[in-house]
From TrEMBL:
Protein name as catalogued: Protein Lines C-terminal domain-containing protein
One Pfam family linked to the record: LINES_C
Biological source species: Cardamine amara subsp. amara
Domain Protein Lines C-terminal: 576-611
PANTHER family: PROTEIN LINES HOMOLOG 1, WINS1, 2 PROTEIN
Lineage: Eukaryota, Viridiplantae, Streptophyta, Embryophyta, Tracheophyta
UniProt cross-references to InterPro entries, sorted A to Z: Lines_C (IPR029415), LINES_N (IPR032794), Protein_Lines (IPR024875)
The organism's place on the tree of life at top rank: Eukaryota
Length: 617
């Protein structure tokens, strides 16, 4: 298929479908007959564009082995000129389809959005004017926000941009992604957010649409439901954008990735302000839980993708303490194995009672809340920006105070003064903490990797009974290193898996969490080998009397031991067998070239672990 003038072909195809309808008066509120005809026409357009994409892809694969032809000649360059016929066709094409998003028909909006996504795909496949297309689309959507009521139409626009981004992520083309991020950032920067804020403030004031009056250029005030749906889609869109960013600490600050992250961070206070009334007025509803989930996910992703100012991290900690305090204060030692059966998305989820559904969602939000709290706090505690006293706001001290309050609420300070009870209670807390995250693999490895940043305080361990920990800062750091000792957490992690090496293998070869699991095992095995005595003598007595269901099989002969708690010799043997079995499995897969990536670094760590086991016998 010839791709030189695909924009003209697309424009003619869409113009024939749309033109006769846009000339009809009151097309924004079509009759059922007009809506039906338009839907049929749009469906035909969608199928036609999809067939073109298949043809282009087929032609490209056939030409892959042939000599590459340089298409960037004067004729092709002329097509991309802003005054060229092709560019004008692209303008009209985008304007026509975006215009359909303003119709009062959910089905028409949906189809028009799908066509825009397929147009994007066809231009990417053909290598024709995609840069111009995405910039025009972003500008049209910006104008829709500024000059019309943003709520019903703009949330569809963000959905379209999100779907285009999902397609781009499959292309693995950094140049296209940079153009996309640059266009989105430009759009977000030009939107008058103060006027949007006025609209939401007015909406919170009366809660209903003012169909007679106008709120400036933004149109009528949205209903509460429309506002909530808009916010959910917008936050979801930002989550997707941030997830695709490849952040580099050494960028110059003007790269598209850096700019979009900074803009998103700037929007967080407004988003929290707009969403909070929804979270409070619709507490317990599906939409409320979804909004809370997405806000937490967005902030968590931002902590991984950018160097956030300490004052912003402190403001997020204050927000968590003010609005998610219940999740932070909830005592983790009450979390039992299999407490939430993460069945959401499963056909069995509908069989749960309303109470069980609420508990499942609450446990998920608690996981996100605790992870964000740790991300913000640990950045303040352990980042070089604060440990070297370059911070003028004394944020490290404030981070210490927040961490102290949380630890004191979970494990009171007097626990650490009695060595006899301190070991059991601290291990109980660590066990409950791991159990909280066991049901969500991605969050599990995020939090386990985060906790590896805590330095061990071996000297202080010798001084606990003598109460020599006078310095408040050192006391907090000691408590952290005690509650989140990486070796002990690793022992608990293996115990919760019932020492099933097949589960570890599944983790390692998983497309979603394989890299995170491999990193965790690499770092943990090094720590275990460096702290061999702690690993061998870890006291399991009475501290792990039940385990998670994260296992493939449970041997019946182990059940009594598990119920009564494992003595550390048995726990060590089980851990050793698990890791050596994992080593053997990885070696076999690697020899057959069936392992999805090079596991040699992991195998070296496992070999070192095996050597220490042999010397221990």
């Amino acid at each position: 298929m010839a791709t030189g003038k695909i924009v003209s072909r697309l424009h003619l195809l869409i113009d024939r479908c749309v033109r006769r309808y846009t000339e009809i008066e009151e097309v924004s509120s079509p009759t059922k007959e007009i809506e039906k005809d338009l839907l049929l026409s749009l469906s035909q357009v969608l199928r036609e564009i999809q067939s073109w994409i298949n043809e282009i892809a087929s032609d490209s694969s056939e030409e892959a082995g042939e000599k590459t032809i340089d298409h960037e000649d004067e004729t092709t360059a002329a097509l991309y000129d802003p005054e060229s016929e092709e560019y004008l066709c692209l303008e009209r094409l985008v304007a026509d389809l975006v215009g359909l998003l303003g119709m009062k028909s959910v089905h028409v909006k949906h189809l028009a959005g799908n066509i825009l996504v397929e147009v994007s795909e066809s231009l990417v496949e053909s290598g024709s004017q995609w840069d111009d297309f995405i910039r025009l689309l972003c500008e049209c959507l910006r104008l829709a926000v500024v000059y019309s009521c943003p709520i019903p139409d703009s949330e569809i626009g963000f959905g379209i941009l999100r779907n285009i981004l999902k397609r781009l992520s499959q292309e693995e083309n950094e140049e296209l992604l940079d153009v996309y991020l640059e266009s989105v950032n430009s759009t977000l920067a030009k939107i008058p957010w103060c006027r949007v804020d006025t609209l939401f403030s007015h909406q919170h004031g009366n809660g209903e649409r003012n169909s007679q009056g106008q709120n400036g250029a933004l149109g009528g005030t949205p209903t509460s439901e429309e506002a909530t749906v808009f916010l959910g889609n917008f936050v979801q869109f930002l989550c997707s954008v941030v997830q695709q960013v490849r952040f580099a600490e050494d960028n110059d600050g003007f790269e598209p990735t850096h700019l979009i992250l900074q803009k998103t961070i700037e929007l967080i206070p407004d988003l929290l302000c707009w969403c909070q009334p929804k979270l409070e007025s619709q507490s317990g509803s599906c939409m409320s839980r979804y909004l809370g989930h997405k806000l937490l996910v967005l902030m968590i992703r931002l902590t991984y993708q950018s160097n956030i100012k300490c004052t912003i991290l402190l403001s997020w900690l204050e927000y968590l303490q003010r609005h998610f305090q219940g999740f932070l204060q909830h005592t983790l030692t009450r979390f039992e194995p299999d407490q939430d059966n993460c069945l959401e998305g499963s056909p069995f989820f509908v069989s749960l009672s309303d109470r069980e559904v609420n508990e499942t969602h609450s446990n998920h939000l608690q996981r996100l809340t605790v992870l964000l709290f740790l991300r913000c706090s640990f950045t303040l505690l352990y980042s070089n920006r604060h440990t070297n006293k370059h911070c003028e706001f004394d944020c490290r001290k404030k981070g210490m105070e927040e961490m102290f309050k949380w630890i004191e609420g979970q494990v009171p300070g007097d626990t650490f003064s009695d060595h006899g009870t301190y070991t059991k209670k601290s291990v109980d807390f660590s066990t409950s903490f791991v159990r909280l995250f066991m049901h969500e693999d991605d969050l599990l490895f995020k939090v386990l990797l985060q906790l590896l940043s805590i330095p061990l305080h071996e000297k202080e361990l010798l001084n606990v009974e003598g109460h020599s920990l006078q310095d408040e800062e050192q006391t907090i750091l000691f408590r952290l290193s005690t509650l989140f000792n990486p070796v002990i957490l690793f022992c608990i992690f293996l115990s919760e898996l019932h020492y099933d090496h097949q589960v570890l293998l599944d983790y390692l070869i998983s497309k979603d969490i394989g890299a995170s699991c491999a990193e965790y095992l690499l770092r943990c095995l090094r720590t275990v080998c460096d702290s061999w005595t702690v690993f061998v003598e870890f006291p399991f007595e009475g501290s792990t009397n039940a385990s998670s269901s994260k296992r493939r099989k449970v041997l019946t002969e182990n059940s009594e031991v598990e119920q009564n708690g494992k003595l550390h010799p048995q726990a060590f043997e089980d851990a050793k067998d698990c890791l050596i079995s994992l080593q053997n499995s990885v070696v076999k897969l690697h020899q057959k070239k069936l392992f999805p990536y090079n596991p040699e670094a992991l195998l070296r760590r496992l070999s070192r672990f095996q050597e220490l086991c042999l010397s221990h016998e």
